[in-house]
Amino acid sequence: MTSPLLDVRGLKTVFHDLAGSWPAVDGVDLVVKPGEIVGLVGESGSGKSVTGFSLVQLIDAPGEIVAGDVLFNGEDLRQASEERLRSLRGDRIAMIFQDPLMTLNPVLTIGEQMCEAILEHRSCSREEAMKEASHALSRVGISSPDARLKQYPHEFSGGMRQRVAIATALLNKPDLIIADEPTTALDVTIQSQILFEVQKLSRETGTAVLWITHDLAVVAELADRVAVMYAGRIVETGTVDDVLDRPRHPYTLGLLSSSAATVAPGERLKQIDGAAPSIDARPSGCPFRPRCGRSLPLCAQIDPPAQVQADGHSYRCHNPVTEGSAL
Amino acid sequence: MTAYILQRLIQSVLVLLAVSIVVFLAVYGIGDPIELLVPPQVSAAERAAMIRRLGLDLPIWQQYLSFLGNALQGDLGRSFVHGIPAVDLILGRLPATFELVFLAMSLAAIVGVPLGLLVGLNPESRVSRAIMAGTILGFSLPSFWKGMMLILLFSVFLGWLPTAGRGETVSVLGIPISLLTLNGLKHLTLPALNLAIPNMALMIRLVAAGTAEAKTQDYVKYARAKGVRSKRIVGRHILRNILIPVVTVAGMEFGSLVAFSTITETVFAWPGMGKLLIDSIYQLDRPVVVAYVMLATLLFVAVNFLVDVLYAALDPRVKLTGEMA
Asked: Exposed (0-12), middle (13-18) or buried (19+): which is A197, by Cβ within 10 Å?
C-alpha cells in the first residue's frame, strides 16, 4: 500500500455565532493516495465544501478549524505558516471552484489570471508563463489559446471558463486538485466532457483529485474511491464498487435509490424523507436517525463509530444494510 | 465609437443651450446692473446713452438672441466692470484655480485610497473606526469654518503657512504656476487642504465600501486558492474592481471644484475663478456670470465624457456604443 498523499484525521471545523459554535465538519477522516480520484458525496449542507476549504486552511471568520490533523505528504498543514500555505496553494494543491462565472476576476485578462498562478510560485519570465498558459488551454480543448489569453472572462461561456479553471489548476502540475462541484453549474453535455478530461489529465499527470459533488452518477463515472458525507461526518467510505454496489449505510442506500439511474423508466423516484438536520439542530446519537427506516433504540444514544472491514470499506451504522435489503 | 461621440456632441450642444436660457433668465432676475455701474451724479442723457451702449435697453429676448449670435462666434460678451472680454477674464483666473484643485484632488486620492483600503480590509479595527469617524467630520464641517480654523492653527498659532494670496509664481508656457515655487506651494497648501478634506472623506468611504464588498467575492478566494500573495490580491484583484466608482466620483468632484471652489477661494483670498464669480455676482457683472456658467457647463460635459472613456478603459465589459441611453 502506497503512503497517502493526503491523510485527514478528526478534522473539525466550526462556525461561531452569538449563540455558540456549530460544527459544519465534525470529525472527518479522509485519505487520498497519490494519483487517485476520490469522490466526496453529500447533500447540500452536509459540510463537503467546508471540508474542501478546510484542507487548504482557507476558512475565514466566523469559521474556524478547531481540531484534527491535515497531513499532506506527511506535513501537518494545520501547523504550517501562512507563507508556507500560500506556497502550497495553487502549486501542490490546486482548487477548482463551483461557479465558473464568479471565480474569475471580471476585469483582468485570462492570461494575467493564469500567469499569476505560475509567477507566484516559480521565477520565470512573463513570456514563458504565457507560453505555458497557452499550452494548458489547448490541453483542455480551447482553440486559438494565444488569442484567448488576451480576452476577459465575460468573453467565455460557462463551460469554457471552467476549462480555464481546470487548465489553471494543472499549470504547476499539482499533487492534488480539490474540485468543489465544478460541473454543477454546467449543462450535462459539457459536464461529461469535463469529467472525461479531468479523468484523462489525472491519469496523464498522476495528479490526485478530490471531487466534491452531490451527484452519485458523477462519482460512479469518475472516481476510484468514494466518501459519503452526512451532517459533517463521513458515514461511509470505500471503493466505488463497494460503496455503490454494496452500500452498508442506510443513507448511502437512500441516495442511490433516489438517483434516476437506479429506477426503471416510468417509475417514481424514491426520496429520503425529511431533510438534512441544520447545523444548530443535530440530533443526539446518529445524526441520520430521524430519517432512517432502520434505526434502533441504540441509535438515539450512541453515535455509531466507524467500522472498518478488511477490504477498507468502512461505515458508521449500528444496523447496517445487508445485501438485498431495502430502506 | 464614432456614432457614440457624435451622439454625445449633440447631447452636449442641447445641454449648453438649455443652460444658457436658464442662466440668462436668472441673471436678468437678480437685479439691474445700471444702478451699480452708473454713478449717481451722471446726467439722464449720459445714463440713457450708457444703457444703450451696454444693450440693456433691448427686451430680454433680443438681448438673448444677440448673446446667442455672439456666442456662436466664440464671443461671450464683455465684462461691464473690467471692460475686457468675459472669457479672457475667466480664463486668466483658470490656472490659479486649476492648480489648487489639482493639488486638492491629488491629496484626496493619495490619502483617501490607501486609507479606504485599510478600512475596507479590517473594518472592525480601532484604527478603522477612528478613520471612519474622521470621515464624518470631514464631510460635515462647513468649508468656510474649516478654512478659518486651518488659518488659525497653521498661520496664526504655528506661523508655518501664509494666510492668503497666491505667492510667487513661475511662468510655464506663459501660464503662471505657483506649484513650482516654495513660496507658492506654501500659499497653496492650506486652501488645497481645505478643498481636499471632504474629498478625502468621500474617497475613504467609497474605497472602503468597495473593498469590503470585493473582498468577499469568489474571485478573491479563488486568487488565494491559487496562492496569490495578499499584496497582489489587494493591489490588483480588489483595486482594479473598485476603481470604477472612484474614477467617476473623482471626475465629477474635479469638475465641480474647478467651477465652484468659491468658498475656499474667498476665505483664502485665492485669485481664482471662484473668487471672480462671487465678485461678479456682487457687482451684477452679467456677462461674466453668464460666461462663467457656460464655461462651467462645458467643463462638466467634457469631464463626464472623459470619465465615460476611462470606464471603457477600466472595465473590459463596457463598450461605448451609439445605443447607450
From this structure: middle
Q: How far is A127 from chain B (nearest CA, A)?
A: 19
**Smallest Cβ distance to A91: which of B222, B227, B241?**
B227
| ipTM (interface predicted TM) | 0.87
CA A219 to chain centre: 10
| Single-letter code of the amino acid located at B224 | R
d(CA B101, CA B279): 20
Residue A62 cell numbers, joined: 466566523
Q: Does A103 sit within 8 Å of B227, measured CB to CB?
A: no
The answer to whether A89 contacts B225, with C-beta atoms less than 8 Å apart, is yes
Encode pLDDT of B197-228 as tens digits: 999 999 999 999 999 988 888 899 999 999 89
- Report the length, in residues, of chain B: 325
- Write out the DSSP string of A312-326: S-EE--SS---TT--
pLDDT tens digits, one per residue of A275-315: 777 777 777 888 888 888 888 888 888 888 888 888 889 99
Say how many C-beta atoms besides its own lie within 10 A of residue A83's C-beta.
9
Query: Whose CA is closest to A248, among A258, A235, A260, A257?
Result: A235
The whole-angstrom separation of Cα A259 and Cα B238 is 42
Q: Residue A311: CB partners within 8 Å, gap ≥ 6?
A: A238, A239, A242
Radius of gyration of chain A (CA): 20
The crossing angle, in degrees rounded to 10, of helices B86-121 and B182-214 is 50
Gyration radius of chain B's alpha carbons: 24
User: Which sign does the torsion angle of CA A95, A99, A101, A107 carry?
Assistant: negative
- Alpha-carbon dihedral of residues B272, B273, B279, B284, nearest 10 degrees? 160
Model confidence, pTM:
0.78
Q: Does B125 touch chain A (CB under 8 A)?
A: no
Q: Which three cell numbers stand for residue A68?
A: 484534527
Q: Does A170 touch chain B (CB under 8 A)?
A: no
Which residues does chain B have within 8 Å of residue A154's beta carbon, measured at their own beta carbons? 316-317
